[in-house]
């Protein structure tokens, strides 16, 4: 989605540099610059490049474009304002061309297919055989991939565009894959059996070379009774008591169990000695080096021998022949070593061949994998189509943006031209709610993401995302106002934005990093706005800056009121009186006067300011939300709601809280410096307004205030029943008058709106009225239940009226959070930096100490003030948008258009 | 265990309990069974199972697919899950797991001894052994000639050793004696398991004891049923009955005297739990077999075990339910592969 918009904006940037040009030049320039998505951005990387997404969004530079392009531009604008028009289309795909058509659609990603065979289970569908073949193939691929991985090599990612292969290629690929797999299996099998042999030989060598010479020595461990027969030399007088040997190797983990079992089963008629091999041997199956235990068992008697063999069998021991005499053993050892040497050569040869086969696999496999994945996706999509009665074509249904219909038509025509019969697409009327499609670019995506996280908008509902672009960073910044912190955040985001095209940055896998990266434009604006609010609050790392000279003059105060030395010595706190002429020269030009940072009543001054500011921002934000609802009502043709819902809501909100805002602003504009003691309290006034009372100590702000207040409260209260009963009664009345006209009179216009002009009727069909009436399926047919509508409206009314109060209070979090942020940074400065700076008068000491102190300050600033406070401010801004702003107009009950695309197959 | 174990149950076993509950949610649903029954070939079964939590567990099987391959792979899957539970468990849950594996170990030992008796190769029989009951010394059982031999040489170190207390004898191992050995082992195993759960107390005891009581009684019934018309004397028969069930002691004594199915049914009539089960059994043609009825009852009890929290019974119940599910799938698969569709619906539904 991002790419086309991005290219367009680049074009725009190029176009806007020459002030005017011939129309022909306009046409040629875009064509040249279109593919410059990557190269072009190198030249244009500048402020313009950064702003270009913003420009495109605001529709600036629209006038530079030829007429056709303006239309497209407007389409984009519209699509951000509300979701695009999406229509249900029916595709008639000739059987011979269906595959190519769908694969082309997969490349383009235009249509979301609807499953027309929902009642048919997966294995009864038409193309299940092909899907199965693809799966078989994927299984073989998996085997090949695993083999490559085992060989310690990696598969490269396929390059270039790989379209889904034509169906006849499947056979070829399958044959080749099978041949490769077979070859690989053979070679691997050979290699494995050779390795097993080699392993055996090595074990044998280890057993022989281990020099378990001392069956005699091992006997020391056992009791003396066993020693007696052992002392007889082998081959001595007791021929029948000859000592026999079983030699072999066993895995070390089983050795102890084997030894115990041997002992228990044979009751000491044997002597076993176990030893670990000195060298590690590679396991032929897993390839991991491991040591083995070699053992030598000497025993008497045949029966015991059989038992021992059984036991060693069950422990999967390797048993080797063991010559009785030293010379025999040596000869055997030499022979074994000889054999293993030869075997190693053969093995090397096999491995060379194996690597050749693997190289071929490495070359062929990646493109095949992508192709077969695509092919499988195409067949799965085809499985959702139904077959026409004549079996000549497949019928598919899907959602498609109305704007993309020509592209769709063209694509279908192109891909079905070979078959002779062309595929057809046409709109069909539909009563289901279409999916929501809002195209975004890299800039708007993160803001749309914020909105979508709450809920995907209903079809064609007003989309809050464009306003979120400004209000979200702004509300964040109100809570995060600090020039220094904002600048750091801005620079961090700027670095991400500038490096966004670098592959290393793009492909980073770290999840936390990805979160930040995908919100880089959001962070950029948040940082920028924080700098702005930081200037308003006049705070930079909690320090005030005096850009302009302060509006207060201490000198004037000192000369006017004769502060003597004694007076100064007695009074640690001095008050500046604005009534004294020359002390207050006028308001500071921008933001808070820096002199307040020295004042003791700094906090109470700021609190009053920030609290009022929060209320003003909140009421404005909410009013804006209610006004946005107007666009919904107009678009869905529900004119009655304009009068019966939006108007009462506005009157209620503005009459009560709008008036409060008015009071605040009015009082700000008055100068109460001279009569500060008798200045009216807005709070008391506002409380009295609801009580219809009057407190004599509280002076009115303006003449006739009480009358205005009473009128407003009564007006607001009158609005409540209007809001409560208006819509239900109107709907009831409309329903009654319709049913009186009778079904015959209703039929034609329903037909007209319902079927012929599907788009409009369908739009009207999903208005919330029908939802409220409890019949989302078929508005006309279902019963109109007054009580249900009344119930819904009552809930809405209560929610709105109470919400106005609680939401306004909720906006006070702006004040609270900004206070917390300011205080935290103040504390950090006072506790760390100030103590560091006041450390010593000597230059050397301070310089050395300041290094760790500044380090601590920097780390704490980033960790606590930027990350922690930033997250909390983000969270609260999010809440203000989701709860306080969006519930005024946004239902968020839609679902996203997810077109059939190969994007995941290519990855 | 102390009272109020639920307060710190999760410290040691919370993760595993969560896991097993998640696993239980992945059991096939009624809808899955309906779809499975409609399958035409084993390939269809495989495709359908792919859409469930079994995933592509058959992906690496070479064609043609057979029922036994499906069975083996399902067992392997269960075994993997079980091993995971077991490797992550702490005492006393790990002892509980050991008790659970014991029944499979007994079966495997008996299977191997029977195989040795019929002079079959060990490898051939090893394939048939249940993977849950595997242990290292298992393959060595064929060196033993008498039960005491078996105990002294092979099984003394395994968890099965304590169950041998009652069955040490110098009889040679012929087929009847092996069968007796199995039942005696099972008897002492069940009794020991029951005692373990009882001593553990708490919810575990409340859940596990009824299940094990039922298991014991079921064995008693089945032993009785199978001993009709054999040379097993009534006294011998009585020694085989596990004594931890609800039937103990009067019911068992009556069962020992039973001579045919009707007498057995009369014994069961004395017990409210077993009366309806025996009433549900069909007579010969059609209807359910006693075995099926018992399975259904078992499934019911195991499903109910999931209604309580903070106990070990869920692990036992999950394993048993999974086994039942595997039996069902195997049954359906057998019916499909043998084109014997009339009986395909008589699997045991898991509620």
UniProtKB/TrEMBL annotation, chain A:
<feature type="region of interest" description="Disordered">
    <location>
        <begin position="739"/>
        <end position="777"/>
    </location>
</feature>
<feature type="transmembrane region" description="Helical">
    <location>
        <begin position="707"/>
        <end position="731"/>
    </location>
</feature>
<dbReference type="Pfam" id="PF01496">
    <property type="entry name" value="V_ATPase_I"/>
</dbReference>
<feature type="transmembrane region" description="Helical">
    <location>
        <begin position="843"/>
        <end position="868"/>
    </location>
</feature>
<keyword id="KW-1133">Transmembrane helix</keyword>
<comment type="function">
    <text>Essential component of the vacuolar proton pump (V-ATPase), a multimeric enzyme that catalyzes the translocation of protons across the membranes. Required for assembly and activity of the V-ATPase.</text>
</comment>
<feature type="transmembrane region" description="Helical">
    <location>
        <begin position="613"/>
        <end position="631"/>
    </location>
</feature>
<keyword id="KW-0812">Transmembrane</keyword>
<keyword id="KW-0375">Hydrogen ion transport</keyword>
<keyword id="KW-0406">Ion transport</keyword>
<feature type="transmembrane region" description="Helical">
    <location>
        <begin position="474"/>
        <end position="498"/>
    </location>
</feature>
<feature type="transmembrane region" description="Helical">
    <location>
        <begin position="519"/>
        <end position="537"/>
    </location>
</feature>
<keyword id="KW-0813">Transport</keyword>
<keyword id="KW-0472">Membrane</keyword>
<dbReference type="InterPro" id="IPR026028">
    <property type="entry name" value="V-type_ATPase_116kDa_su_euka"/>
</dbReference>
<feature type="transmembrane region" description="Helical">
    <location>
        <begin position="588"/>
        <end position="606"/>
    </location>
</feature>
<protein>
    <recommendedName>
        <fullName>V-type proton ATPase subunit a</fullName>
    </recommendedName>
</protein>
<comment type="similarity">
    <text>Belongs to the V-ATPase 116 kDa subunit family.</text>
</comment>
<feature type="transmembrane region" description="Helical">
    <location>
        <begin position="676"/>
        <end position="695"/>
    </location>
</feature>
<dbReference type="InterPro" id="IPR002490">
    <property type="entry name" value="V-ATPase_116kDa_su"/>
</dbReference>
<feature type="transmembrane region" description="Helical">
    <location>
        <begin position="651"/>
        <end position="669"/>
    </location>
</feature>
UniProtKB/TrEMBL annotation, chain B:
<dbReference type="GO" id="GO:0016471">
    <property type="term" value="C:vacuolar proton-transporting V-type ATPase complex"/>
</dbReference>
<keyword id="KW-0813">Transport</keyword>
<dbReference type="InterPro" id="IPR036079">
    <property type="entry name" value="ATPase_csu/dsu_sf"/>
</dbReference>
<protein>
    <recommendedName>
        <fullName>V-type proton ATPase subunit</fullName>
    </recommendedName>
</protein>
<dbReference type="Pfam" id="PF01992">
    <property type="entry name" value="vATP-synt_AC39"/>
</dbReference>
<dbReference type="GO" id="GO:0046961">
    <property type="term" value="F:proton-transporting ATPase activity, rotational mechanism"/>
</dbReference>
<dbReference type="GO" id="GO:0033179">
    <property type="term" value="C:proton-transporting V-type ATPase, V0 domain"/>
</dbReference>
<dbReference type="InterPro" id="IPR035067">
    <property type="entry name" value="V-type_ATPase_csu/dsu"/>
</dbReference>
<comment type="function">
    <text>Subunit of the V0 complex of vacuolar(H+)-ATPase (V-ATPase), a multisubunit enzyme composed of a peripheral complex (V1) that hydrolyzes ATP and a membrane integral complex (V0) that translocates protons. V-ATPase is responsible for acidifying and maintaining the pH of intracellular compartments and in some cell types, is targeted to the plasma membrane, where it is responsible for acidifying the extracellular environment. May play a role in coupling of proton transport and ATP hydrolysis. Regulator of osteoclast fusion and bone formation.</text>
</comment>
<dbReference type="GO" id="GO:0005768">
    <property type="term" value="C:endosome"/>
</dbReference>
<dbReference type="InterPro" id="IPR044911">
    <property type="entry name" value="V-type_ATPase_csu/dsu_dom_3"/>
</dbReference>
<dbReference type="InterPro" id="IPR002843">
    <property type="entry name" value="ATPase_V0-cplx_csu/dsu"/>
</dbReference>
<keyword id="KW-0375">Hydrogen ion transport</keyword>
<dbReference type="GO" id="GO:0016324">
    <property type="term" value="C:apical plasma membrane"/>
</dbReference>
<keyword id="KW-0406">Ion transport</keyword>
<comment type="subunit">
    <text>V-ATPase is a heteromultimeric enzyme made up of two complexes: the ATP-hydrolytic V1 complex and the proton translocation V0 complex. The V1 complex consists of three catalytic AB heterodimers that form a heterohexamer, three peripheral stalks each consisting of EG heterodimers, one central rotor including subunits D and F, and the regulatory subunits C and H. The proton translocation complex V0 consists of the proton transport subunit a, a ring of proteolipid subunits c9c'', rotary subunit d, subunits e and f, and the accessory subunits ATP6AP1/Ac45 and ATP6AP2/PRR.</text>
</comment>
<comment type="similarity">
    <text>Belongs to the V-ATPase V0D/AC39 subunit family.</text>
</comment>
<dbReference type="InterPro" id="IPR016727">
    <property type="entry name" value="ATPase_V0-cplx_dsu"/>
</dbReference>
């Amino acid at each position: 989605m991002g790419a086309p918009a991005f290219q367009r904006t680049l074009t725009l940037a190029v176009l806007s540099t020459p002030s005017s040009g011939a129309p022909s030049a306009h046409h040629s320039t875009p064509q040249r610059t279109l593919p410059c998505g990557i190269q072009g951005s190198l030249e244009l990387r500048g402020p313009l490049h950064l702003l270009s997404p913003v420009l495109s969004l605001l529709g600036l530079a629209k006038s530079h474009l030829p007429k056709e392009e303006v239309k497209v531009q407007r389409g984009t604008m519209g699509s951000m304002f509300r979701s695009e028009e999406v229509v249900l289309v029916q595709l008639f795909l000739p059987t011979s061309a269906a595959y190519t058509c769908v694969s082309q659609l997969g490349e383009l990603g235009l249509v979301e297919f609807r499953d027309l065979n929902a009642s048919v289970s997966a294995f009864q569908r038409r193309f299940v055989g092909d899907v199965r073949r693809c799966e078989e193939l994927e299984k073989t691929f998996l085997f090949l991939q695993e083999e490559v991985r085992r060989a310690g090599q990696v598969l490269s990612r396929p390059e270039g565009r790989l379209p889904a292969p034509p169906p006849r290629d499947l056979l070829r690929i399958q044959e080749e894959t099978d041949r490769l797999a077979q070859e690989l299996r053979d070679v691997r099998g050979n290699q494995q059996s050779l390795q097993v042999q080699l392993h055996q030989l090595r074990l044998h060598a280890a057993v022989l070379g281990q020099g378990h010479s001392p069956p005699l020595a091992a006997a020391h461990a056992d009791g003396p009774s066993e020693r007696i027969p052992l002392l007889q030399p082998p081959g001595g007088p007791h021929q029948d008591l000859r000592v026999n040997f079983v030699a072999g190797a066993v895995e070390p983990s089983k050795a102890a169990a084997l030894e115990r079992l041997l002992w228990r089963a044979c009751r000491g008629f044997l002597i076993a000695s176990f030893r670990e091999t000195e060298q590690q041997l590679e396991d032929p199956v897993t390839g991991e080096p491991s040591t083995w235990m070699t053992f030598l068992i000497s025993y008497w008697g045949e029966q015991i021998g059989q038992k021992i063999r059984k036991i060693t069998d069950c422990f999967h021991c390797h048993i080797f022949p063991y010559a009785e005499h030293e010379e025999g053993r040596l000869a055997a050892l030499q022979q074994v070593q000889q054999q293993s040497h030869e075997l190693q050569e053969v093995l090397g040869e096999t491995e060379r061949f194996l690597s050749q086969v693997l190289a071929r696999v490495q070359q062929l496999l990646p493109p095949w994998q992508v192709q077969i994945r695509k092919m499988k996706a195409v067949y799965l999509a085809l499985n959702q189509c139904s077959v026409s009665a004549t079996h000549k074509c497949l019928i598919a249904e899907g959602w498609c943006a109305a704007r993309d219909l020509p592209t769709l038509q063209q694509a279908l025509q192109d891909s079905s031209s070979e078959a002779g019969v062309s595929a057809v697409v046409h709109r069909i009327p539909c009563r289901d709610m279409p999916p929501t499609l809002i195209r975004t670019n890299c800039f708007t995506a993160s803001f749309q993401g914020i909105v979508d996280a709450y809920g995907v908008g209903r079809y064609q509902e007003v989309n809050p995302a464009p306003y979120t672009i400004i209000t979200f960073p702004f509300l964040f910044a109100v809570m995060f106002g600090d020039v220094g912190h904002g600048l750091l955040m801005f620079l961090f985001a700027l670095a991400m934005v500038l490096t966004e095209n670098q592959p290393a940055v793009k492909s980073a896998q770290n999840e936390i990093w990805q979160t930040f990266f995908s919100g880089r434009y959001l962070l950029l604006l948040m940082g920028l706005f924080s700098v702005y609010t930081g200037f308003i609050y006049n705070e930079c790392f909690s320090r005030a800056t005096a850009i302009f000279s302060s509006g207060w003059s201490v000198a004037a105060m000192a000369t006017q009121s004769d502060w003597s030395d004694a007076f100064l010595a007695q009074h640690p706190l001095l008050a500046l009186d604005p009534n004294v002429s020359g002390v207050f020269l006028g308001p500071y030009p921008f933001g808070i006067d820096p002199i307040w940072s020295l004042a003791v009543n700094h906090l109470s001054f700021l609190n009053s300011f920030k609290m009022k500011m929060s209320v003003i921002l909140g009421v404005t934000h909410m009013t804006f939300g209610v006004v946005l609802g107007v666009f919904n009502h107009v678009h869905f043709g529900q004119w009655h709601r304009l009068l019966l819902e939006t108007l009462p809501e506005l009157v209620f909100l503005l009459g009560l809280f709008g008036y409060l805002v008015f009071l605040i602003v009015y009082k700000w504009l008055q100068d109460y410096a001279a009569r500060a003691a008798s200045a009216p309290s807005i709070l008391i006034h506002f409380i009295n307004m609801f009580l219809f009372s009057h407190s004599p100590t509280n002076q009115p702000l303006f003449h006739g205030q009480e009358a205005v207040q009473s009128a407003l409260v009564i007006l607001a209260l009158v609005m409540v029943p209007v809001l409560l009963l208006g819509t239900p009664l109107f709907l009831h009345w409309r329903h009654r008058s319709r049913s009186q006209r009778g079904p015959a009179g209703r039929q034609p216009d329903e037909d007209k709106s319902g079927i012929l002009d599907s788009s409009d009727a369908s739009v009207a069909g999903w208005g919330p009225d029908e939802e409220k009436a409890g019949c989302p399926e078929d508005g006309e047919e279902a019963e109109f239940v007054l009580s249900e509508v009344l119930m819904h409206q009552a809930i809405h009314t209560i929610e709105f009226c109470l919400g106005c109060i609680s939401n306004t209070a909720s906006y006070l979090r702006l004040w609270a959070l900004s206070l917390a942020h300011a205080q935290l940074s103040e504390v950090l400065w006072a506790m760390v930096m100030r103590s560091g700076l006041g450390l010593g008068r000597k230059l050397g000491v301070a310089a050395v100490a300041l290094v760790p102190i500044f380090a601590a300050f920097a780390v704490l600033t980033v960790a606590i003030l930027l990350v922690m406070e930033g997250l909390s401010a983000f969270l609260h801004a999010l809440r203000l948008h989701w709860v306080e702003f969006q519930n005024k107009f946004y239902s968020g009950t839609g679902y996203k258009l997810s077109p059939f695309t190969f994007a995941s197959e290519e990855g | 265990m102390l009272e109020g174990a639920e307060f710190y149950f999760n410290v040691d076993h919370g993760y595993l309990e969560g896991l097993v509950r998640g696993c239980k949610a992945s059991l096939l649903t009624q809808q899955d069974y309906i779809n499975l029954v409609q399958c035409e070939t084993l390939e269809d079964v495989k495709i359908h199972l792919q859409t469930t939590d079994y995933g592509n567990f058959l992906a690496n099987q070479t064609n043609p697919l057979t029922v036994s391959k499906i069975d083996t792979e399902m067992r392997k899957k269960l075994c993997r899950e079980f091993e995971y539970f077991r490797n992550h468990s702490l005492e006393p849950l790990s002892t509980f797991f050991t008790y659970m594996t014991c029944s499979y170990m007994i079966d495997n030992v008996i299977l191997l001894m029977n195989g040795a008796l019929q002079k079959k190769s060990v490898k051939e029989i090893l394939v048939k052994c249940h993977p849950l009951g595997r242990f290292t010394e298992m393959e060595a059982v064929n060196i033993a000639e008498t039960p005491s031999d078996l105990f002294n040489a092979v099984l003394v170190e395994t968890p099965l050793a304590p169950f041998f207390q009652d069955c040490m004898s110098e009889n040679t191992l012929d087929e009847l004696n092996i069968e007796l050995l199995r039942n005696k082992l099972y008897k002492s195993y069940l009794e020991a398991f029951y005692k373990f759960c009882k001593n553990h107390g708490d919810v575990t005891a409340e859940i596990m004891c009824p299940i094990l009581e039922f298991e014991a009684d079921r064995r008693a019934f089945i032993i009785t049923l199978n001993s009709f018309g054999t040379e097993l004397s009534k006294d011998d028969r009585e020694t085989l009955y596990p004594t931890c069930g609800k039937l103990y002691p009067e019911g068992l004594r009556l069962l020992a005297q039973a001579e045919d199915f009707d007498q057995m049914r009369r014994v069961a009539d004395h017990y409210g739990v077993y009366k309806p089960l025996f009433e549900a059994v069909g007579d010969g043609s059609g209807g359910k077999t006693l075995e099926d009825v018992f399975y259904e009852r078992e499934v019911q009890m195991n499903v109910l075990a999931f209604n309580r929290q903070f106990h070990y019974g869920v692990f036992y119940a999950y394993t048993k339910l999974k086994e039942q599910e595997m039996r069902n799938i195997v049954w359906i698969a057998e019916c499909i592969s043998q084109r014997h569709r009339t009986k395909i619906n008589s699997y045991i539904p898991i509620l």
